[in-house]
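Retry 2 of 3 after timeout on previous attempt. Resubmitting structure tokens to design endpoint.
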């Protein structure tokens, strides 16, 4: 698996002007992702500087640190990859959007989620923006209630709420 021989810095533990960040393609990854699916983690991080993050373990306001990295090191790109369905991991995606907003400049970025530990899917920055506004999510759910069937396939919490689990 290779995990024991590889060490990745934590986003909160790296200096924002560290030389490896200058002009780099950076991946901000859920700290648990190498354990959830090492193959997907390896594929998405290949040739990039990896910064691990866990909003459940660390201060969840990553946007300030990310904004400082962008301002100080001018990375070529930022890729965020997290575990889908984690309320903690969601904040990493929102933090990159917020950092771009704070700085008032565009950042080349991509967002991905790993679904059920097996499949990686790209999501858009607008998906993250909408997810922050629950009244809009509610309207989308009203207009497309069949999405609850998809939710049933991925969420133990939802299955428990409807009495299946």
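Retry 2 succeeded. Sequence:
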């Amino acid at each position: 698996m290779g995990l024991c021989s590889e060490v990745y810095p934590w986003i909160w533990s790296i200096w924002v002007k560290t030389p490896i960040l200058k002009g780099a393609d950076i991946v901000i990854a859920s700290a648990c992702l190498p354990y959830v699916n090492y193959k997907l983690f390896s594929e998405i991080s290949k040739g990039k500087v990896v910064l691990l993050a866990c909003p459940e373990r660390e201060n969840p306001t990553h946007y300030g640190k990310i904004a400082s990295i962008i301002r100080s090191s001018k990375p070529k790109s930022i890729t965020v990859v997290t575990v889908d369905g984690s309320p903690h991991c969601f904040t990493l995606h929102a933090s990159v959007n917020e950092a771009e907003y704070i700085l008032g400049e565009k950042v080349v970025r991509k967002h991905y989620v790993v679904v059920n530990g097996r499949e990686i899917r790209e999501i858009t920055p607008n998906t993250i923006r909408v997810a922050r506004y629950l009244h809009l999510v509610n309207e989308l759910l009203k207009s497309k209630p069949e999405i609850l069937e998809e939710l049933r396939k991925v969420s133990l919490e939802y299955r428990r709420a409807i009495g299946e689990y």
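Attempt log closed. The chain has two domains: 3-132, 133-165.
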